[in-house]
Specification:
The complex is a heterodimer. By secondary structure, chain A is an alpha/beta fold. In chain A, 43% of the residues lie in helices and 20% in strands. Chain A has 5 helices and 5 strands; from the N terminus they run E-H-E-H-E-H-E-H-E-H. In chain A, helix 1 links the parallel strand 1 and strand 2. By secondary structure, chain B is an alpha+beta fold. Chain B folds into 5 domains: 116 residues, Up-down Bundle (Four Helix Bundle (Hemerythrin (Met), subunit A)); 89 residues, Alpha-Beta Plaits (2-Layer Sandwich), CATH 3.30.70; 47 residues; 181 residues, Heat Shock Protein 90 (2-Layer Sandwich), CATH 3.30.565; 142 residues, Roll (SH3 type barrels), CATH 2.30.30. Classes of the chains: A alpha/beta, B alpha+beta. At the A-B interface, helix 1, helix 4, strand 5 and helix 5 of A face helix 1, helix 2 and helix 6 of B.
Chain lengths: 121, 676
């Protein structure tokens, strides 16, 4: 199944993603901020990145731009988490190169649906 | 790997966020213009809100949202973080914490009162800004036997991780699908960008799904494509209950997700203020794993037992002649020692986590007592065993309270004494050998020795006119029920006295010292061992019994000279020019028989005071795993615990503080009898 990299400074959100995706057979890699996320995306080659936008060190937008600049990761689906369904934030993230988004709070089945949508086995 | 309940992680995380928030708020009192502090408070609030909603703390999310709204104005610079606002904000923080810890027993009225307070600070937000009314799209209950679609994607779509082929696959899940690619936009090979999407599609979808279901398939790319949907061959279907999201803040629809049916019609969404804000938590340099505290305790217990078992093995190996067993025993000794150090290291927590709590205490006290106080901490990185950190909280609260309540004078007195109006309290932690010194220093009036003396005489603790040094008089502060506070304020007279502080510290094998300069201030210093569980000890023999002296207290070992031996009455020893009182352990332990010919004296010290202990033999260093004595032995003061030796027998650990006090008493008695 899919290798999913979750980038979030909140351990509880990372854990939530992990306990949702692992029973469905996905492998979850965790990173606590954008800089770590960028590093792990390169070393672990995930099939999908789920990233928070507001993070220390390197925020989600910077992470998305940095990932999009890596030729070896072209086409990597990147989903961002956002608290508000604010169009401006979405637009900014999309134009940075994000593939999709999940609005917090989300239900486990929504997360699974998004993973299924963006990653084909 | 075990999975931990994310809700529990959230609670812990929230705890840390509250500390960040509180620290930021308190710092804002001093530096109201510091943008970074406002941002830091804001990020903490934002995470509490977002994660709170995720884990079902809806009240938390709702309340925090309001709080955040107020703080948004601070962040935009529209209102100033005044002292009053920060006080309300601190109350709001406490309320959110209560909501998370015990949601059911928390009174919503308090929350409303806090919100009302908060609203006073908020100027009416400009109408129409950020409060746009969002209308849900009018949803047609259109149903068709099939759909004709035309898809045109932006050229960069592949690079952004969306795959048109996957999307076509998703369409196929809705029903039989026939897709025709339109290739007229594909350039010549040498102009072709391999990562661009040039294809368009005409799709015939034979499905009676709603057009919203088709939109859902393309939800992430709707703004990066041209999608035209036209129904094929209309079929009249009775309007079913409408499937549509109506709440603007709700998650976007996701295929395969069942959505609650809602009545058909226009929905006016509640005005919602929206914002986007950067959130960066404090940098955390080191990757950490959370471990439950009990597990660490269990681990320490096991390591303690391992060290004991290892000591027995080493002893067996030394006594035997099997060389290979000796080698293994040495190897295990080395491993056990490093395992012990690692385990103890894992239990060490920087004391800064404790210091943070006191800033709030000082803030509240200085406001309640109207004594402006500058609170300075240093040595936050100093590490202590986590159990000790917990035990230290109450004594330090008491000492800081005392410092503000009794130590720092009120503004008028300070002005009269020519001091700065703002008092100063320093909380400091430093390493000193195998000990950690934690001190609370104020620059107040200092201890009133005359008043303490008067009180002690009044309570019959000393005879009027007895000759006592200032230091001895100050020791009465540690006497149970001793209080010189002339007015009982809300802060003093809470039942926890300095005697309790002293006892708590001594239970941790620590000691407490007072130093005061009249008019300049008082310093209370706590000397604490680094850890509670294992110490390096000096194993000695007295008669047949064996005892442990904590090595950190041992200063010197000297032989008792025959002259010293003979001078029965005067128990003093000349150690490198200083006269040191000594105690004969044989006498104390009631050991009969003749003492060994060469008696040894171990010089121990607490702070400034040195005392000699006379034993029969010094056996050597011993890794001492401390086991506490049972309640039956609680009145035996000269032992602080017991340990198990290599041969499986027990040895008692001598309580250095008590022995020093005892020796001092003896020497004073001698002084007095000599004087008489």
């Amino acid at each position: 199944m899919a290798r999913v990299l979750t980038v979030d400074d909140s351990p509880s959100i990372r854990q939530m993603i992990k306990v949702t995706l692992e029973p469905a057979g996905h492998h979850v890699i965790e990173a606590g901020d954008g800089a770590q996320g960028l590093e792990k995306a390169q070393s672990n080659r995930p099939d999908l990145v789920i990233s928070d936008l507001n993070m220390p060190n390197m925020n989600g937008l910077e992470l998305i731009r940095a990932l999009r600049n890596l030729p070896q990761l072209t086409g990597l689906p990147i989903v961002f988490l956002t608290t508000e369904s604010n169009e401006a934030v979405k637009q900014e993230a999309k134009s940075a190169g994000a593939t999709g988004w999940i609005t917090k709070p989300f239900k486990p089945e929504q997360l699974l649906a998004v993973v299924a949508k963006l990653v084909r086995s | 790997m075990t999975t931990i309940d994310p809700t529990e992680i959230f609670r812990q995380e929230a705890g840390e966020l509250f500390e960040t928030l509180e620290a930021a708020l308190l710092d804002l009192c001093q530096r109201p213009d510091d943008r970074e502090l406002v941002d830091s408070a804001f990020r903490a609030l934002h995470t509490i809100k977002g994660s709170g909603a995720m884990f079902g703390f809806d009240k938390v999310a709702a309340f925090t949202h309001e709080f955040e709204t107020a703080f948004e104005l601070v962040r935009k610079g529209e209102i100033k973080p005044t002292q009053d606002l920060i006080s309300v904000a601190l109350a709001a923080k406490d309320y959110i914490r209560a909501l998370i810890e015990a949601a059911d027993s928390t009174d919503a009225i308090i929350g409303e009162a806090i919100l009302d307070d908060l609203k006073q600070f908020i100027m009416p937000a400009p109408e129409g800004v950020g409060a746009a009314t969002v209308e849900a799209p009018v949803v047609t209950a259109e149903r068709a036997a099939g759909w004709q679609l035309h898809l045109e994607f932006d050229s960069h779509i592949l690079r952004n991780g969306s795959s048109p082929l996957d999307l076509l696959d998703d369409l196929c899940k809705l029903g039989p699908c026939f897709a025709v690619p339109i290739t007229d936009a594909v350039p010549l090979l040498d102009e072709l960008e391999p990562e661009d999407c040039y294809l368009k599609w005409d799709v015939t979808l034979a499905s009676d799904c709603s057009s919203a279901a088709i939109d859902d398939v393309f939800m992430f790319v709707l703004d990066e494509m041209k999608l035209t949907i036209s129904p094929l061959a209309h079929v009249d279907v009775p309007a079913p209950p409408l499937l549509q999201e109506t709440i603007p803040d709700a998650p976007p629809p996701v295929p395969s997700l069942s959505v609650e049916p809602e009545p058909v019609g226009r929905h006016q969404a509640a005005p919602v203020e929206r914002r986007d804000e950067p959130k960066r938590n404090e940098e955390r340099g080191i990757a950490t794993v959370r471990v439950q505290a009990e597990r660490l305790d269990e681990l320490m217990d096991r390591v303690g037992e391992l060290v004991i078992a290892q000591a027995r093995l080493s002893q067996l190996a030394t006594n035997g002649s099997d060389l290979s067993i000796k080698m293994i025993a040495e190897e295990i000794e080395r491993l056990a020692a490093s395992l012990r150090d690692t385990t103890m290291g894992a239990r060490m927590v920087p004391i800064g986590s404790l210091f943070g709590r006191f800033r709030r205490l000082v803030h509240d006290l200085s406001r309640d007592l109207a004594k402006p106080v500058d609170f300075v901490t240093s040595g936050e990185d100093t590490e202590l065993d986590k159990t000790m950190i917990e035990c230290l909280a109450d004594p330090l609260v008491h000492l800081i309270r005392n410092a503000i309540d009794h130590g720092i004078e009120d503004s008028a007195m300070r002005a009269a004494a020519g001091k700065a109006e703002q008092g100063r309290i320093e909380l400091q932690a430093v390493h000193s050998g195998a000990q950690v010194l934690v001190s609370v220093r104020d620059n107040g009036s200092g201890l009133n020795t005359a008043r303490i003396r008067a009180k002690a005489e009044e309570q019959g603790l000393i005879a009027p006119g007895a000759a006592l040094s200032d230091n001895e008089i100050h020791q009465f502060l540690f006497h149970p029920g001793f209080s010189t506070a002339q007015t009982v304020s809300a802060l003093s007279g809470r039942g926890v006295g300095m005697d309790v502080v002293k006892r708590t510290i001594e239970n941790m094998r620590g000691s407490i010292e007072l130093a005061t300069i009249p008019g300049k201030g008082t310093t209370v210093t706590l000397r604490l061992p680094l850890t509670l569980a294992i110490i390096e000890g000096l194993l000695i023999r007295v008669g047949e019994g064996r005892y442990i002296i904590p090595l950190s207290a041992v200063e010197d070992c000297v032989e008792l000279t025959p002259e010293d031996q003979r001078s029965r009455g005067r128990n003093f020893l000349n150690v490198r020019g200083d006269l040191v009182p000594f105690l004969r352990l044989r006498e104390m332990m009631d050991v009969s028989g003749t003492p060994d010919q060469h008696q040894k004296t171990i010089i121990i010290s607490t702070g400034e005071t040195r005392v000699g202990l006379v034993a029969d033999q010094i056996i050597g260093n011993h890794q001492t795993v401390i086991k506490s004595l049972s309640k039956l032995h609680s009145d035996v003061t000269i032992f602080s615990g017991a340990t198990i030796l290599g041969d499986g027998t027990a040895a008692l650990i001598l309580d250095v503080t008590q022995l020093v006090a005892l020796a001092q008493m003896h020497s004073e008695k001698q002084h007095m009898s000599e004087a008489a």
